[in-house]
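Before surveying the methods themselves, let us examine one representative protein, written as a sequence plus integers encoding its fold.
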Amino acid sequence: MVDEFEEQGSEGLDIEHYLGIVRRRHLQFLIPLLAGWLLVWVASWVLPPRYKSGTLILVEQPSMPKDYVTPNVSDDLQERLQSITQQILSRTHLLHIIDQYNLYTLEHGDRSPEEKVDRMRNDIDVELVRDAHDRITAFNVYYTSNNPKIAQGVTTELTNLFINENLEVRQQQSEGTTKFLETQLDTARQSLEQQEEAIRQFKAQHVGEMPGQLASNLQILSGLQSQLQNEEDALNAARQQHVYLQTLSDQYKAIQGTVKTVDGTAVGLPAIDQQLEKLRAQLADLRARYTDRHPDVRKVKDQIADMEKLRAQFLASNSAKTPDSASSASAAAQTGDPTQASMLAQVQSQLRSNQVEITNRERSVADLKAKINDYQGRLNQEPIREQQLADLTRGYDQQKANYDDLLKKKNESAMATSMELLQQGERFRVLDPPSAPEKPEFPNRLKFCGIGLGVGLAFGVVVAGAFEMLDGRMYSEKEIRKTLPADVIAEIPVIATPSDLQTSRRKMWLGWATAAVVFATILAGSAISYLRG
């Protein structure tokens, strides 16, 4: 039989041969076709249905523009969705939903919690929706169950979990960012206070040596030098006054000594004239530098007036004496001139005052020199203090800039946290509520009808082919000619009896009826699957 088919294949397609097979084996083909289709069709109604409920969740952008409030939550939506999905698919959340809806229970015995959680994870599906720029704009959440109401209810629970978890995650991340910045800000504030304290102590330890005090130190030093010059000038004048008063005292003493003699000579007059010449020279020198209203000029003028008065008294005292009045001179020598004694006491008093003035002037000069040395030392230390202060200030400026930056970020983060707490940030909104499935997602009974038709066709072909291959009879002239060693000279025509014709018609009607029943059954089953599946 195989050789026969090979020969037919080599000669070409024999349509009459195959039509003959169809006429002979149509029942062997139609019955398996119907059986195979019925098997798959019944299986589609026997298998437990699986209803799939879904919802579309839209990702809404923050209502506040980013130019006004910058979000402090990660912008990677896909990563955040993965994190939220992992939290929702955690054992705790899923067991709560399983217990709420009494899912995955068996009539005999019960599954373990781990098995229930694994089954539910397999029944949940999250599908991302992207735009033309590959950005996530929405996502679908699906859940499959044997009960459409349960599928819708569980999808609603999952939707609420996604929305609530997103809000909670964003709020936690925002609050965590704000707390972190507050911690960093406190640390920066402490560092800044330490820098401020170090600068304050440095300035307190080096008062008067700071770079900002350079101008005032120079001004003070210039004033002290001027005061020192004035004090030294005053000291020199006091010393000259001391010399003058000492000379005047000596002259008065000399005058008293000459009064005791009787020869009438003016022993003290040259000394007085010499002192007058010195005072006049000193007055000329002072007038060259100062005006007549200057205290030193006025003082020298007073000294000249006193000296001239003394000279006049001396001359008057000497002119009153004569060689004949020896007894009166002797008496004056014994008792002394009270006017001259008073002037001598006055000069000695001025001499003591002048000595006190000299001592005070010397002490003032020493103090001024000490102050000048102190300020000169401050000026010498100014470059060193400037470098040290620059080092401290550099660290302070860095800490201040870091503190200002952290303060700005903390305020922005606090504002973003307030926006998240008011639910004005990025959030999920249900665009399509969870659907109530009317037809099961599995099995697709209409699809199963097509699968069953294919299975039936294959089964019918196999059965009909098997019957044809196992049948050893010959049904055509070609087959007979191929088996004979010689050519056929004559043919005996088919002689059909009425019973043979009746049997042939009965088989034909049976075949058509069977074909009609088979195709009607398939069409009816497909219609039922379409309408009720």
Summary: The mean pLDDT is 80. The two ends are 46 Å apart (CA to CA).
